[in-house]
Amino acid sequence: MPNGVAHxxxxxxxxxxxxxxxxxxxxxxxxxxxxxAMIGGICGKLPxxxxxxxxxxxxxxxxSVALLGTMTYSLKRIYDWEPETDLKKVLRSVLIIGGTAYxxxxxxxxxxxxxxxxIGKL
Length: 122
Description:
By secondary structure, the protein is mainly alpha-helical. About 65% of the residues lie in helices and about 0% in strands.
C-alpha cells in the first residue's frame, strides 16, 4: 500500500516529468524542474491532507473515481489552453503539474486492496 513518502516521491517525479515534457511551459522561467518537483511533491500528498488516513475507510470524495475522472477531463482542457500572459502561462503549468500529481496519487491508491470509492461522501 502506498504511504505518504511513496505518494510524495511519485508527485516529485511527476512534477519533474511534466516540466520536462510540456513544451508550452518552457516559455516560463518560473517553472523549472526544482519548482515543479516541489509542486508535485505537495500535490502528490494533497488527497491524504484533505482526507487523512486515520482509519482504513478514510477514502471518500477526494479519493473517488468520480473526482479522478473529473480531474482527468479538466487536465486535458487545461493542457489545450493557450494562455496569452506570462502569469496565465505559469498558472497553466502549476495546474497541470499539481493536477497530474493528484491524479497519480489516486491511480496509486486505486491499485490497492481498498481501491477507490465510486463517489464517496463529502
